[in-house]
Write a structure and sequence with these properties.
CATH superfamily of the largest domain: Glucose-6-phosphate isomerase like protein, domain 1
Mean pLDDT: 88
Order of helices and strands: HEEEHEHEHHEHEEHHH
Low-confidence stretches: none
Strand order of the largest sheet: 5-4-6-7-8
Shape: globular
Strand content: 5-15%
Distance between the termini: 38 Å
Helix content: 40-55%
CATH architecture of the largest domain: 3-Layer(aba) Sandwich
CATH topology of the largest domain: Rossmann fold
CATH class of the largest domain: Alpha Beta
Number of helices: 9
Radius of gyration: 20 Å
Length: 271
């Protein structure tokens, strides 16, 4: 398994250690906070380093097994960055607005995607037979659907893994992922809620340098994993032989593994 090298120095240079003002913190993040400086919480980068590696290993194994990742961040600072990584690595993304039921009501969402594609086809077809007014209305509707659904237009089923930047913005995405048992990797700032996150990465979720670092690490991991991924035909053949009944969801299994690995590291960093 080949994941990118990462050091605490890189995290420091990207400002990953800088949390929010102490008045804005979420007490549930206490175990990931090293201390405070000038009324700002400082994240514990030793934990960030180890947990980032665990998250990257999960990304690698998911992609190496032909799994798909859904990137989610509708906040301005991260929306372009996650869309760029998703496009470059052939994954999915939501960076404008999370529509209720995007995962839990896939039938309705896929119907909207078909409608969007029909608008696109009608707008480029020759001899369309539409008036200028009708074409303008179709263009407006298509653009509206494109903003929300363009990043998942080719998604045929729910993703195997969800990556989120800023859990405070994406509570609906978290709720739906948890309900379906989809593992979640998330960047958690000092004001974030870690509940429901299977692979937490404590760190700054606002600074562009920090966001770029996370995205580049994930992009490199996916590229490396794709080199070892089996062909779709081989994977389908393997899946037919492996029909073992599972008593736990993937998320539960991953969460158990993570808790065991870090159970000895959960001593308080601040009292």
């Amino acid at each position: 398994m080949k994941i990118p090298n990462l050091t605490i120095q890189q995290l420091l240079e990207a400002g990953v250690h800088l949390g929010h003002k102490t008045l804005r913190w979420n007490p549930k993040m206490k175990k990931y906070i090293f201390g405070k400086r000038d009324s700002i919480h400082i994240m514990d980068l030793t934990q960030t380093l180890e947990l980032t590696k665990v998250a990257l290993e999960k990304i690698y194994s998911t992609v190496a097994n032909n799994g798909k990742i859904l990137f989610v961040s509708t906040k301005k600072q991260a929306s372009e960055a996650i869309a760029e990584v998703a496009k470059e690595t052939d994954q999915y993304f939501v960076n404008y607005r999370w529509l209720g039921g995007m995962l839990t009501n896939w039938g309705t969402i896929s119907g909207s995607i078909k409608k969007m594609k029909k608008y696109e086809a009608d707008l480029v077809a020759e001899n369309r037979g539409f008036t200028k007014k009708e074409l303008l209305k179709m263009s407006v509707k298509k653009d509206k659907l494109q903003r929300s659904l363009g990043g998942i237009a080719e998604m045929k089923k729910v993703p195997d893994l969800v990556f989120i930047i800023d859990t405070n913005y994406e509570s609906l995405a978290i709720q739906e992922s948890v309900k379906l048992g989809i593992p979640i990797i998330a960047i958690l700032d000092s004001n974030s809620n870690p509940d429901g996150i299977d692979f937490p990465i404590p760190g700054n979720d606002d600074a562009r340098r920090s966001i770029d670092l996370y995205c580049n690490l994930i992009k490199d991991t996916i590229i490396n994993a794709k080199k070892t991924a089996p062909s779709i035909e081989i994977q389908k053949s393997s899946e037919k032989k492996d029909n073992i009944e599972k008593t736990k969801t993937v998320a539960e299994i991953d969460r158990d593994k993570l808790e065991k690995k870090f159970s000895s590291k959960k001593e308080n960093k601040m009292n």
